[in-house]
Amino acid sequence: MITENLKGKCSTIREVKDNLYKPGDAIIGGIFSLIYPQPFGVNFNEFPKRSREIFTAVIKNYQHVLSLIFAIGEINNNSKLLPNITLGSHIYDNLYDARITYEIMLDLLFTEQKNVTNYKDYMNIDVFAIIGGLNIENAKQMATVLSHFKIPQLNYGAFETTLRNSANLPSLYRMSPRETIQPMGIVHLLLHFGWTWIGLIVSKDGDGESFQKILTSMLSKNSICVAYLYRLEGSASVWDYAYLEEMSKLNSELLLTKVNVVIVSGDYNSLSGLAILLGKDEYDENIDIGKVWITTARWDFTQPISWFISPTKTYNGTFSFSAHREPVPGFLDFLKTLTHDKALMRFLCFFWGTAFNCEFNGENFAFCEHSRVCNGKERLDSLPTYTFETEMTGQSFSIYNAVYAVAHALHSLHSLKQKTILNRRRSENIKPQPWQLNYFLNNIHFNNGAGQEILIENGEVATGYDIVNWFIFPNASVLKNLIATISTNHDFTVSKGDIVWNSRLKQIPPQSKCVESCHLGQSKMVQEGKPACCYGCILCPEGTFSNETDAIHCLKCPEDEYANQNKDNCNPKVFNFLSYREPLAISFIFLAVSCMAITVWVMQVFIRNWSTPIVKANNRNLTCILLTSILLCYFSSLLFIGRPGTVGCLIRQTAFGILFSIAVSCVLAKTIIVILAFLATKPGNRMRRWLGQKVANAIVLSCSLVQVCLCTAWLLSSPPFPDVEMNSNHGQIILECNEGSMTMFYCVLSYIGFLAILSFIIAFLARKLPDTFNEAKFITFSMLVFCCVWITFIPSYLCTKGKNIVAVEIFAILASNTALLAFIFLPKCYVIVLRADLNSRKMSIEKKGLPISGKL
Fold it and tell me: What global pTM score does this model have?
């Protein structure tokens, strides 16, 4: 089959063997993609023939064969695993062709070439499992045949979800990681670097369609947009005009767009055109592609697509996925001894000649200008890494584990058979059948030849992916650096290795976004008619912030914090209350203490002149009560300064209300007594009996008692309490006393106002009485100022917040209290201290003939 094509059209080898058979008690089949047919011309007048193809050895894929042979050799040399059974192998090359894969399956199962549907020799099949399926199409062809016989099929390459879920394919096992792990790893990688505007290139086959469907769904959920999508055909049509036009469009896309990150998923066949395009970048000055490439495990971009194109610096900084692997001891030593096995070398001769550019048996190597004779001393470890890797690759590691999985399943089956024979005391040997391995392979836990633990659950190997960063040296050798891993449960772990970036990138690390990132203090805004990644930016509203770039929405600051001017952070709010250390508070304290000192001085003046006419005329008891209440009112203003506390909030408003009620009640009593005194001078007037001290005391006591009752009801029903206001003032936390019941608060103020207005009206009516010792005019002025102050206080109280409202109330207390002190007592102090000649009984008698009574 393959031999004919190679003999007739490729003059490289005298004899090419298209399959490799090594006998054994149990045969493990292998179907690999090793030799790739490349068309070099198309004649549209005839049906395409392989006569117009040349054959290229995909050198790296030969490691798949070698890993299978190496694993079988280890197992056969292991006395504990399958001690009485020898594993054999039968390996084929399918030329990347699904149709040939189908033919190979029949040849592999029926060595006598009985390719018919009625297989009578079914029980004599020696192949216990088949490893293969580099791509989905080949895997499907294998599954079509093997499903009839339930022979285990271990797939190491691409895998489609529908294959495993199909009830008709119960013997299909996946040795590569689950299909959702790789796309999720790509999403994690994109999010890690903040790349949201990417290009996507996939193969135009079942593999590419499955990968695209899974990946785009995950990208959409994570707000990552695909700027462009290209689905590439296989290189069988590389000379087709439509294909060349598609590659031209892709070339323009790569050169002109701002997309710096491109995800590529495909195999050697489908992406050969892309590889050629990127290979030209090394030699064509008009092509300068500086991108970050993210490739899946299917595409080994370092694999030469022909004998003259090798990996270029275009791939520097590439991130590639590979099935997680561990070092396998002894593999390199095995590679060094290949030439000792003549049968194996006959199968590898085409690979060997291609890898070392040499010829076998004196015939020239095709398309090589300089060639030499292969002497068998060539060393695989001397080849560049891009040509052949001596360390087991991810796919080879999957094949290695697949062989061990079959061996352990066969070992378990034989152990069970031996127990059955012993239990039944039968000596006959019951030959195991391939379908019986499925019971063990579906869930198996074992250690491979390197002692590494392998777990297969529900027909799928429990392993993840390694993410590798590549650097291409000028001599085309490569360096791989592990930078991250993603496990079976999608845990993404970043390693500490340094990352190499493509030198052609304009920014390091590169950015790949549709628009510039939103800065701190801004949030994204969706723009109508554009992809989600092409967003706008808006400033965070008042009271919100964003401390990261490209914030989806602004966050609200905690109640005890506020957004700073740049809206990129929150600062602690400042406590707002009238502190003792503030200049305004110090000013109020100074005024209050000064007024208290003046009040004390007035009290001393009156006490020292206790028996003088002017003191007697002012009703000494009321004067003492009034001065004491004025003194305490000044002191009560100090209760409003400082951090509000529970006790302070309870007593400051009630103390102020009661003390002011006593003071105004005294003024009211003095006014009424003045009027009664002058009415008593008329002949026959009975008012004289009301001039006693009891009337004044009754007025003061009754009026004050009403306020005491109001304050008591206030404290019992809804008392004031310390409160915190977070949102009134920007950047501040207002510490204040909540009045509890505002109704009761205004009742207390209204009652004081009522007493003040009543005093003002009575004093105003008595203002024209003889004024030798008449207080009516002074009381009128004091009450006028008192009322004006508190009338002005109400709107000011309603319009201010925080410490300003406290300052307004303190000012009202000091101003109204000072009005009482100044207008009522300072004129009398002037007479007592500076005009003592007027403070005599003789002067009071001479003035208008008025009676002088100590009860006034």
Answer: 0.66
Residue-range definition of the domain harbouring residue 377 = 2-177+328-441
Q: In 3D, which of 19, 816, 764, 775 has the Cα closest to residue 350?
A: 19
| Angle 753-756-762 from CA coordinates, rounded to 5° | 140
Instruction: Find out whether 113 and 107 touch, Cβ atoms under 8 Å.
Output: yes
The percentage of the chain sitting over the pLDDT mark of 90, rounded to a whole number, equals 23
Question: pLDDT (tens digit, 9 = 90+) per residue, 375-417?
Answer: 778 889 888 887 888 999 889 999 999 999 999 999 999 888 7
- Cβ-Cβ contacts under 8 Å for 751 (sequence gap 6 or more): 657, 661, 706, 707, 710
Q: Look at 846 and 547; give whichever has higher pLDDT.
A: 547
Arithmetic mean of pLDDT over the chain: 80
Identify whether residues 608 and 755 lie together within a single domain: yes
- pLDDT of residue 463 exceeding 50, the answer is yes
Residue 309 included in any domain: yes
Q: In this structure, what CATH number is given to the domain that contains residue 170?
A: 3.40.50.2300
Residue 76 CB contacts under 8 Å (≥ 6 apart), including other chains: 24, 82, 86, 87
Number of structural domains in the chain: 4
Tens-place pLDDT, residues 60-80: 899 999 999 999 999 999 999
Element (DSSP H or E) covering residue 571? strand 570-572
Query: Which residue has tokens 């096995």?
Result: 341
Which residues share a beta bridge with 494?
A: 484
Asked whether the beta carbons of 374 and 359 are under 8 A apart, the reply is: yes
Say what the pLDDT of residue 686 is. Answer: 56
Contact call for residues 197 and 259 (beta carbons, < 8 A): yes
Q: For residues 312 and 302, what is the distance between their CA atoms, to the nearest angstrom?
A: 9
Residue 411's φ and ψ, nearest 5 degrees, are: -65, -45
Class of residue 450 by CB neighbours under 10 A (exposed 0-12, middle 13-18, buried 19+) = middle
